[in-house]
Design brief:
- The protein is mainly alpha-helical.
- It is built from 12 helices and no strands.
- The two termini are about 35 Å apart.
Amino acid sequence: MTGGIGGQLGLAYAFVEREIALSKRYWAWEVVWVVYGIVTSLSVTYIGVAAPAITGGTVDQAAVSRFVLYLLVGTIAWRFLGIIFDNISEVIAWERWEGTIEYTFMSPVPRLTHLLGMCAATLVRALVFSVVTLAAIALFVPVDLSRANALSALALLAVGVLAFVGLGIACAAFPLMWPEKGLQMSYIVQAVVLLVSGVYYPVDVLPGWLGALSALSPATYVIRGMRSALMDGADLLSLWPEIWPALSIGVLSIPLGLALFVRVERYAKRTGRLKRSG
């Protein structure tokens, strides 16, 4: 029944259905996170709108519009990637909160199938949240995407998904290894990635040692490429210097993250850490 690719895809979709059911159960929290995403994104965007007042000088309107779009692209791209990282890295935490961790991890479902289903559900959630956020912002702030290259932007997002799925799977192993503080460690990783990836500013302004870390973050290349695609209409060929590093990180991080997760899972089962509470 569960053999073959079709059977495994069916099992993976079962986890998607479970995430949909959880979203319906906690719909109020989903509303909270949508509103939070819209408000925080608008707050950052209004920094660009307020640039002339903040600097105390006269700023060309075209420059202001470009600055607003610069901040908006970074904010939306990070929101999208951040949701993917959050949902995947919190896989263990959610299982513990729901009291299903023993049932899920002792069931005869391959771990790859389990994580594939979770990643698919996460991707849908990230897309919905990002589209809603962008649509809401457009009601308050004029967004000029007349020069945007949509194909290039979608390609960069796809590459970013690969990289952040691998990073999220690796960080999801932390709560397995350390039930009491593993999730906090995942948040620290996310905060560091946010700092060094140029979400709100060019990475060139970072100190040298932080600039070196930015080269290891896939978000650095994705966000920089997204800005070129949406602000300047860059095509895929010209964006290849941004695509191949992020793609390489994704191709390497997914099998490495999965291998780490499976190894830590075995350790957790052997040492009794696979339980509902720390």
